[in-house]
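Here is an idea for our session: we take a single protein and study its fold together. Which protein we use is up to you, so please pick one and set it down. Once you have written the record down, we can walk along the chain together:
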Amino acid sequence: MATNLAVVVDPEAPGRLVIRPVPEPTADRDEALVRVHAISLNRGEVRRSGMAAAGWRPGWDLAGIVERSPADGQGPSVGTRVVGFLPEGAWAQRVVVPRNALAELPDKVTFSQAATFPVAGLTALHALGKGGPLLAKRVLVTGATGGVGDFAVQLARLAGAHVTASVRRADQVPTVRQLGAHDVVVGDTIAASPKYDVIIESVGGKTLGTALAALQRGGVCVTLGVSASSEVTFDARDFFVTGRSTLYGFYLFTEFVGEPASVGLRRLADLVAAGQLAPHISLERPWKEIAQVAQDLMARRFPGKAVLVVD
């Protein structure tokens, strides 16, 4: 009988992440069995792995091939290349995924590219959507060299926005320029001018506090991370006298009310296939290196995304 392997938390192991045998997954009627070929890492799941109990299985992003279609007959067929999204446990050789969290991949899109779509790509896509049509609007993306920031800069530029990228260091400027940023802000402070219609904010701390004063009337600041600090001080008067401005708390797992993850995943895949979007993969390693790559991610030793190939 085949053995299914998965990444699990082991508090006694270096890096706390190891590959161990786990039970074979059992699919509900609306779930497909997927043989995973590539996975992608995000700071949120890695951070949780550092605190989780022994045996917990992390993982949100996956790409692979359907080995068994959903029993209700409505999902992708056997042999279909897919990208998928799970609330946990995606880092395994075989997983079951609800059909509304799966999207078929065009031939031009690799498994490694697709593995970056679920959390980083969908977060950028849905967060930018809070600003409505972006044509000719001014968009600020903080943490622009991160996984979400990378997608957000490209998608905002593609939608016709004037894009400003915020980065920590001057040596990161060429990277975000190449992604499509028109302007770049260096440092942890956002000037009160110019004003922005949409701000995609993932840093927190001083960056979020000052970004709120840079909102245009009727603008929206979407806060989705706190890579610098979760404690924020801001001038409330500067914020409210702007008028009709909004601070939106974004958590991806609560966003799939009107549109399932499958829709956004297919949209991202089509953009990559058309050459209009290019995921930035800094590291591509065998999944046996999960513990070290996870530590490197948290230590910010590389920009963009890390992808692990599942053997």
